[in-house]
Design goal:
- The protein has 275 residues and is an alpha/beta fold.
- It has one domain.
- It is 34% helix and 15% strand.
- It has 10 helices and 8 strands.
- A 4-stranded parallel sheet has the order 4-3-5-8, with helices on both faces. Strands 1-2 form a two-stranded antiparallel sheet. Strands 6-7 form a two-stranded antiparallel ribbon.
- Helix 6 runs parallel beside helix 10 and helix 7 packs parallel to helix 9.
- The longest helix has 22 residues.
- The two termini are 24 Å apart.
């Protein structure tokens, strides 16, 4: 039997209260790291910026779907832990959603988001742990902690990019603290002089093994909780080969993230898996 109590799976050094010597910040480890955004409602969000929207409107004046955002703007309502989700300070049951910006919903109205619509379908609180720009190791880290705090019915996981991972490094500006860095392929590896090491760390094989290990760990947490874990990765389904994102009928406001049509495809894929 797997014990998922605070001391076993939350952090390498036990629960948060016992790691003062490491100077871990709660919002860095258990949330996005954006403490200043807690309990806020935002009109814009990184990547989905006002400047980019003006640029896109200027360069796509005939895109009616994009122009709709002028009169129907997006708002990002974040909870007390900076997640785009219902409050986590509850004992009511709900569903956890894992993934990146496509789960968070960058550039999309909340009611266009696959995760939000799926949660409405299955019922329960909306516990969205989606973290823009991050990979599966981040999803695992967040789930390790919140699985001990939230009353979880199901876990739904959409993680389309396997070449992202995170690692810990010493924060030289705040010793002996440790901060989390994130890598996408060669990103952040430029300073490694040993090219053999750099190639190894960013190789498809290494990144895929890290991805699979995190996937199995997440599955193990779900098994220990006795709940269903639904995972979906759209390999070979051609989302990136369809018409350009900026020509869709209902595009994301930043013209970079998935439009309504792909959100609906992801929704249907999860619906087909429901037990």
């Amino acid at each position: 039997m797997i014990n998922i109590g605070d001391h076993e799976l939350c952090l390498p050094y036990g629960n948060y209260e016992s790691v003062d010597k490491r100077k871990y910040e709660f919002f860095d480890i258990y949330c996005h790291g954006w403490k200043h955004l807690a309990n806020s409602t935002l009109d814009w969000y990184p990547m989905d910026t006002q400047e980019l929207f003006k640029h896109n409107v200027k360069n796509n004046p005939e895109n009616k779907g994009l122009l709709k955002y002028i009169d129907n703007p997006i708002t990002y309502k974040l909870n007390e832990y900076s997640f785009r989700a219902d409050s986590f300070d509850t004992k009511e049951p709900g569903n956890v959603f894992l993934g990146c910006s496509h789960t968070f919903g960058v550039g999309n109205h909340l009611d266009h988001l696959w995760a939000y619509k799926l949660n409405k379908l299955v019922g329960g609180k909306f516990f969205n742990l989606g973290t823009p720009g991050h990979g599966i190791s981040t999803s695992l880290r967040l789930l390790r902690y919140w699985s001990t705090k939230l009353n979880i019915k199901n876990i739904f996981h959409y993680q389309p990019r396997y070449h992202r991972y995170e690692f810990y490094k010493e924060d030289k500006n705040n010793p002996p603290a440790t901060k989390i860095e994130h890598i996408t392929g060669y990103q952040n590896l430029e300073k490694i002089k040993d090219y053999n090491l750099r190639d190894a760390l960013s190789s498809d094989q290494n990144l895929l093994e890290l991805y699979k290990n995190s996937l199995l760990a997440i599955s193990g947490i779900a098994q220990a909780l006795g709940i269903n874990y639904y995972y979906y990765m759209p390999i070979g389904e051609g989302y990136d080969n369809e018409e350009p994102l900026n020509t869709r009928i209902n595009p994301a406001r930043d013209l970079a993230h998935f439009p309504l049509s792909i959100n609906n495809k992801i929704l249907e894929s999860f619906k087909s898996k429901l037990i």
